């Protein structure tokens, strides 16, 4: 099975510049992963995945979105029975004329 979580949007501290460390900014995450679904005893609760991702991002206050992607990749593989994770993190308001994104795929 494949789970896709799209447009997960919240505010957190992320970035290296002083203004990014002082005020939360909007981030948007798109995440997808596959897992071996057998029956209802081994499903992955995507609401828990979403809550964990948001909690990690708010708690860690990453300086780089690259660091956030690496950390989330390891976190999700460790805490859920999944092998490959695709993550895209966007900062839609960091520049006035574009959305900046980084992904691990």
Which helices and strands appear, and what pairs or packs with what?
Layout: E1 2-12, H1 18-22, E2 25-34, H2 46-60, H3 65-79, E3 85-95, E4 98-103
Antiparallel strand pairs: 1-2, 2-3, 3-4
What does this 3D model show about the protein?
This protein has helices at residues 18-22, 46-60, 65-79, and strands spanning 2-12, 25-34, 85-95, 98-103. It is an alpha+beta fold and 105 residues long. The chain has a single domain (2-103), classed as GTP Cyclohydrolase I, domain 2 (2-Layer Sandwich). β3 and β4 (98-103) form a beta hairpin. It is elongated. It starts with a strand and ends with a strand. One of its GO terms (biological process) is folic acid biosynthetic process. Its EC number is 4.1.2.25. It catalyses: 7,8-dihydroneopterin = 6-hydroxymethyl-7,8-dihydropterin + glycolaldehyde. Pathway: Cofactor biosynthesis; tetrahydrofolate biosynthesis; 2-amino-4-hydroxy-6-hydroxymethyl-7,8-dihydropteridine diphosphate from 7,8-dihydroneopterin triphosphate: step 3/4.
